Amino acid sequence: MIFFLKRIPILRKVVDERFLNHRLRSGCFAGIAGGIVADGLLVYRHYVDHVWSWDLLVVLLTIMVVGLALLSWYLIAD
Length: 78
Description:
Order of helices and strands: HHHH
Radius of gyration: 18 Å
Shape: elongated
Structural class: mainly alpha
Number of helices: 4
Mean pLDDT: 83
Helix content: over 70%
Number of strands: 0
């Protein structure tokens, strides 16, 4: 994203560090909210319908694996 800011002058006036920080934080909250909703649906389908929803389980595992992988990467790379 920073590369495009240097090449297109008008974007430097519109997009600044605050915008990028807000985008980072909103994406983080969106991922957490998506994980909570998927977890709620998985638990609801298990306890009410007595059926394991494997697609929601895969979504939850993907969120967890990507989150832990990125956390590990940032800790190692920083």
